[in-house]
Structures are given as C-alpha cells and as structure tokens.
Asparaginase (Variovorax ginsengisoli), 330 residues
Amino acid sequence: QSLPNVVILATGGTIAGAGASAVNSATYSAAKVPVDKLIAGLPELSKVANVRGEQVFQVASESLTNDNLLTLAKRVSALSKQPDVDGIVITHGTDTLEETAYFLTLTVHTAKPIILVGSMRPGTALSADGALNLFNAVNVAASKDAGGRGVLVTMNDEIQSGRDVSKTVNIKTEAFKSQWGPLGMIVEGRNYWFRAPVKRHTMQSEFDIDSIDALPPVEIALGYEGVAPTAINALAASGIKALVHAGTGNGSVADRIVPVLQKVRADGILVIRSSRVPDGFVIRNAEQPDDKYDWVVAHDMRPQKARILTMVALTKTKDTKELQRIFWEY
Ligand SMILES: NC(=O)C[C@H](N)C(=O)O
C-alpha cells in the first residue's frame, strides 16, 4: 500500500490502563494492555497508515528512569533513520510525558514526525480519551506537514509542542497545556496548524542521543514558606552534578537558603534557578544576582524540564555561561 509507515512505541501509562468497571476513571491499573491489543482495538488506524507496534516498556510513567529515557530515545533515533519508517508514535503515561517529550526534542536528530500520546482515562472507562488521542497521534505521525516541528504531543484534539507543554490538571481530559498555546488541532484526522516553535530542536540541536550513553545526576529542591536547608544539603552530599531550585514566584530564594545555594555552587555543583509557578519565566539577575553567584536561570522551563535540559547539557559542558546560552536557545 502507499500509506505512510508509522511505528507505535508503547511504554505503558493510562492509555494502556484497565479498571474494574466502566465508572472507574481514576481507580485503575496503568500499563496493562499490550500495544498489539491497543492497535487491534482501533481498526480506523489502518485507513491512515501501515501501523506496527513495539512494546518498549510497560510501566506507569512516574516510574520511568534515566536509563529508560536513554533506551527509548536510542530506539526512536534508530527507527527514524530507517527509510521504511515515516513517523513514530510513543504511547506514554501522562505524569512524565512532558519530560520524555522534551528529552527527545533535545536529542533525536530527525525531521520525521515524532508524536507522544497518552490518556487521562483507561480504555475501560466511560468516555475514555485514549482511542481518539491515539488516532490523532497516528494521523499527525503520518502527515508530511508534521515533520520538522520538534517532538509533538497530541492530547484532547490539540497538537502541542513537546518543549512547551505540561500536564496542568490531574483529573480532566484537557490536562495538557502550554502557556504559549498549542501549535494546532486535529479534527476528523486532518491537521490544522496555527504556529511553529522557534526554539532549537531535533535537527538543529547540538545534542545527539547516538553519542549520549549516560546522564549525570541532577535533582530538584522545592522552595516554600518555612523551607529548611535539610533537603538541599542532603542532595548536595549525594553526589549530584547540578541542583534545580524550584523557587517561589520569580524564582525567589529564601534568605536563609541563599548561602546554602552559594555553598553548593562553591562545591562545584551547578545551580539552576527556576520557579514552582506553572507559567511565566525567570529573569536573570532579577530577584537574585545570578552573575555574582554564578547561577543559571531556567528561562521558561518548569523545574522538571529544567532538570532534563541540564542533564543533557552536562553531557557537553559544565560552563555556566554555556549552560545559560543553552537555556535561552532550547
Ligand atoms: N494518566 C496517566 O497516564 C497517569 C499515569 N500515572 C502515568 O503517567 O502512567
């Protein structure tokens, strides 16, 4: 057939989940249904693409590890180089989907469409959202116009940038949002595009998964009223290479924590100043003198995505000016 060839890499999550009854939208087991069963349950896919599945993992995404990320990205990279593969869909739990999407957009060199998709309800639930989300994902992966836009996410009829999008609600189907807006929408299998990403991704990235075999330990410390230095000190003592500080507001840091972070930096650990606030971005040298302390600001990256970029960047550089450039560009 002349239909495009799409590979579905399945990793688990709620899109492969099953509950005891149709009313169980929140009480269910994730990562139960194998990929071949997901594909067999959606005969509409065969009109859009020649689809085949690979079961890479079968886990809930909160349990994914750095090693899993490397395995998945290397598989995506290898498939993207095959002439008989036109697009790749990754079924994934929604809890950390945004982190995998960002990792892939930073490290996989391809102009072919790569789409991550999940669901908020298991397939056994009333008004399950996985089937349409997956149908949309395969439609986007099978479209020439979806290439070269970085790794994408299809949830709730929207096409989101994998860089920008985050899970913002844990109980609704319209869970994935970006403060910069979706790139487009899919309606009845057709893509409608409205904007394109401007940050570096995939083909323009200086990072390449084919030459990354390990990720350095990078952890996150949260800022809040009454915060003590206990967690930061324990993390610093654990051998981390960088610490993402998920500060309050504009990435503000409690006065008693400032010297603790200065000490962390003096001990050779990179400090990335981000914010726990979902939207907005952190301004360099506002709130804290980042130049003076040799800290890096996370731009518009949420702490969990700032951690991903820091791990990837550290495979190439430990220089704080370079790391700051990377945060502005990606
Ligand atoms: N909706 C989901 O997929 C949540 C699930 N805990 C996961 O991330 O695997």
Notes: The mean pLDDT is 98.
